[in-house]
Structure formats: structure tokens, C-alpha cells
């Protein structure tokens, strides 16, 4: 099992170190190889995704990724900015399926921005298509408006598009994931306004015929945004396109208390995946030793489950995280009165100690 370890920038190096520590006490044999990515790679090699880093990622079974970015790179030309590394990895590894579980741990219900009774026991899985939609559709650009009331005026435009095979492959992923959970898929669209999403709805309905054991409902994105804060537990698998998924998954993140708790996985058709916390490089707290490493540690658990076929080891990590929270240990982002505040390293050490105690 070969894992490419790409810590990146800011808190990326601190949180990935804790996840690696956790992996190393599992009695599994991994080959871990580290490389620079993002701003760190730009400083060392003049590019956020150097050829050597990309090659390592392509040859690995899985990539454990920290985060990239820093405000000091904001004035670089777009192609050299750290964030381009993550887009490049998604593109070159064909990572079209993004999984973001939003789980509200019992001990953190009070950290959520919603009333505890609305989020207690919350366990939803957001599946977002990651390589299509308006984020990648061509043509795009700026021009002089060719028609309309403001014809001749400068305008900008993007193209929203999805092809049948693109929708089919992500729909299969969603239905298969639902089979292993609550057997319900909510497909989110804007079919009442957008041609692309009427097509999405039609294709998803066709694919559903192969999964009679899974319930399918369709929901408009505006209603889905409302339901996520009104009654989030009504969802099992919430499945949508790239842009709606981007927005809804951040909304769901806040239901769970802290973005520091949220893992994610991006998979291709071969089961190869990139695993990373849902947050960024948090330059405001980088180097202070206070970042929450649990999202990255839980991403490592997802990596074991989805790319390395080690579900038992994944469960061991998830159980260890729950028991550390039950012990009352909290990093600053999830701290509340009556709990014990710890730093990044202490949180990682506590998970390691629980894992050792399990065996
Ligand atoms: P961010 O997620 O880095 O931080 C948002 C807020 O959450 C900050 O207050 C931060 O301190 C806090 N936070 C984030 N992770 C935390 C953790 N593990 N523990 C405790 N607190 C945590 O988002 P931002 O500030 O908008 O962006 C910072 C940089 O990260 C930018 O350069 C951005 O482009 C980049 N970014 C990278 C990725 C990625 O690598 N996939 C994703 C999002 C943002």
C-alpha cells in the first residue's frame, strides 16, 4: 500500500504529521512517501504541483493531503497559486467523486450553530461531482455582450454543462454508497430553471432503475439549502453537481460544530483517492500548534476504507476519535466550558494512546 503524503502549507504540515503518527501505530505495512505541494512546492520548485509530486501521486494507491494556500501568494498569476495544485491533482487523477460525511458527534452537539436536538445523531454523506459543471465548462471568459439589453457592453460568462456519462458515473457512486448506509438518495438540482439540471434529473432517474432497493427523491437546491438547516437529519446521501455541492457541503460543515472535524475523500473510477480535511491551510493559526488534527485523522480513516480496503482499521481510528472526545479533550475550535483544551500534538497523541489501548 503506497501512500503519497502531501502536507502542503500552513497548518497542513502540523495536521498531516498527526495523521501519519496515527497510521504508524496500526500494525499495517504502508510505504509512505512525502512531497511538497502548494506554496511550499512553489518556493522549492517554482510550481505548486511539480512533475515529481504529480508522478508520486499518480503512482500511489492513495494521497493524504493537508492543505494549500497562503495570503502571501494572492498576487501570483493564477496558474502559479498554491490552490492550483489541488485542481491539478483532481484533474490528472480524474477524481470525479467527492465524499464529505457530515457527522455530529454526540459530545459536540453544543458546538453546532443549530439547536442540539436538530443535530444530535446527524450522519449524512454529501456526494459532489467534482470535475464538471460550470467550474470547468467551456467556453468562458470576458467579451463584449453580443445581444440583450446591454449589447455591446463588457460582460463575463461561464458555461454550465454535464454530459450523460458524467452524470451516470456519479449517480452509480451515489446509489452504491446509499446501499451501504440508509438506502436513500436525495438528488439536488435546479431543474425548474436550468436545462443542465433537467438533464441531470432525467439521467439520475434512469440510473435509479438499477437500484430498486434505494429510495430516490429529487429536491431543488434552494429547498435543499433550507432543509439542511431546518431538518438536516432527513437526509442520508445528499447527491449533487459541482457548484451546488461546493456550497451545500460547507453549509453542512457548520452543522457538525467545526470545520476542523470534517474529513473528505475524492475518488476516481479505479478506487484511487485523495484524502484531505475539508478546511484550508488556516494561515491565521499556522505554526501555533492549536489546529484541530481530527479532520485529517478521520480523512486517513476514509483512505483506509475507500482506497486501501482496510475497513476494520478505519473503524478503529473512528472509535479512537470518539473516545478521545468522550474523554473531554478539545482543541480550541471545539472547546467549551468543562472540557480540557489541548493542542494539535496532544490531540494526535491522545488518539494514538486510545488506539494502543484498543489492541
Ligand atoms: P480555512 O479553512 O483555512 O480557515 C477558515 C477558518 O477556520 C479560520 O479561522 C481557521 O483558523 C479555521 N480553521 C480551519 N481549519 C482549522 C482546524 N483544523 N482547526 C482549527 N481551526 C481551523 O479557510 P480560509 O481562511 O478561507 O483560507 C485560507 C487559505 O486556505 C487560503 O489560501 C485558501 O485558498 C486555502 N484553502 C485551501 C483549501 C485546500 O487546500 N483544499 C481549501 C480551502 C481553502
TrEMBL record:
Keyword Mitochondrion (UniProt): no
Any GO molecular function: 3-isopropylmalate dehydrogenase activity
Annotated SUPFAM superfamilies: Isocitrate/Isopropylmalate dehydrogenase-like
Residues annotated as binding Mg(2+): 222, 246, 250
Catalytic activity, as annotated: (2R,3S)-3-isopropylmalate + NAD(+) = 4-methyl-2-oxopentanoate + CO2 + NADH
Chain positions of site Important for catalysis: 135, 190
Cofactor binding: number and manner: Binds 1 Mg(2+) or Mn(2+) ion per subunit.
Enzyme Commission designation: 1.1.1.85
Any single GO BP term: L-leucine biosynthetic process
Subcellular location: Cytoplasm
SMART domains associated with the record: Iso_dh
PANTHER family, A to Z: 3-ISOPROPYLMALATE DEHYDROGENASE
Name under which the protein is recorded: 3-isopropylmalate dehydrogenase
Source organism of the structure: Caldimonas brevitalea
Gene that specifies this protein: leuB
Amino acid at each position: 500500500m503506497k501512500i503519497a503524503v502531501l502536507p502542503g502549507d500552513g497548518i497542513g504540515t502540523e495536521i498531516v504529521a498527526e495523521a501519519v503518527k496515527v497510521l504508524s501505530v496500526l500494525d499495517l505495512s504502508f510505504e509512505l512517501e512525502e512531497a511538497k505541494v502548494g506554496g511550499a512546492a512553489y518556493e522549492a520548485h517554482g510550481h505548486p504541483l511539480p512533475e515529481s509530486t504529480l508522478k508520486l501521486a499518480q503512482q500511489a494507491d492513495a494521497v493524504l493531503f493537508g492543505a494549500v494556500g497562503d495570503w502571501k501568494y494572492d498576487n501570483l498569476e493564477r496558474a502559479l497559486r498554491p490552490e492550483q495544485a489541488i485542481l491539478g491533482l483532481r484533474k490528472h487523477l480524474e477524481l470525479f467523486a467527492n465524499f464529505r460525511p457530515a457527522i455530529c458527534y454526540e459530545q459536540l452537539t453544543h458546538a453546532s450553530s443549530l439547536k442540539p436536538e436538530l443535530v444530535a445523531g446527524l450522519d449524512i454523506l454529501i456526494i459532489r461531482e467534482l470535475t464538471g459543471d460550470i467550474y470547468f465548462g467551456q467556453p468562458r471568459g470576458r467579451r463584449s455582450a453580443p445581444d440583450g439589453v446591454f449589447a455591446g457592453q463588457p460582460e463575463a460568462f461561464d458555461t454550465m454543462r454535464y454530459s450523460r456519462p458524467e452524470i451516470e458515473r456519479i449517480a452509480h457512486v451515489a446509489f452504491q454508497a446509499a446501499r451501504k448506509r440508509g438506502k436513500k438518495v436525495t438528488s439536488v438540482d435546479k431543474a425548474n430553471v436550468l436545462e443542465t439540471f433537467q438533464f441531470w434529473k432525467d439521467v439520475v432517474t434512469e440510473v435509479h432503475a438499477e437500484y430498486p432497493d434505494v429510495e430516490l427523491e429529487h429536491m431543488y437546491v434552494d429547498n435543499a439549502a433550507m432543509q439542511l438547516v431546518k431538518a438536516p437529519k432527513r437526509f442520508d446521501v445528499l447527491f449533487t453537481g459541482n457548484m451546488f455541492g461546493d456550497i451545500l457541503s460547507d453549509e453542512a460543515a457548520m452543522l457538525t460544530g467545526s470545520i476542523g472535524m470534517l474529513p473528505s475523500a475524492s475518488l476516481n473510477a479505479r478506487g484511487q483517492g485523495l484524502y484531505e480535511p475539508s478546511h484550508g491551510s488556516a494561515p491565521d493559526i499556522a505554526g501555533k500548534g492549536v489546529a484541530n488534527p481530527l479532520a485529517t485523522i478521520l480523512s486517513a480513516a476514509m483512505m483506509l476504507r475507500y482506497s486501501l480496503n482496510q475497513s476494520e482499521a478505519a473503524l478503529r481510528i473512528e472509535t479512537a476519535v470518539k473516545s478521545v472526545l468522550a474523554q473531554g479533550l478539545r482543541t480550541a475550535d471545539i472547546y467549551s466550558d468543562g472540557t480540557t483544551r489541548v493542542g494539535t500534538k496532544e490531540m494526535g497523541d491522545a488518539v494514538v494512546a486510545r488506539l494502543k489501548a484498543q489492541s
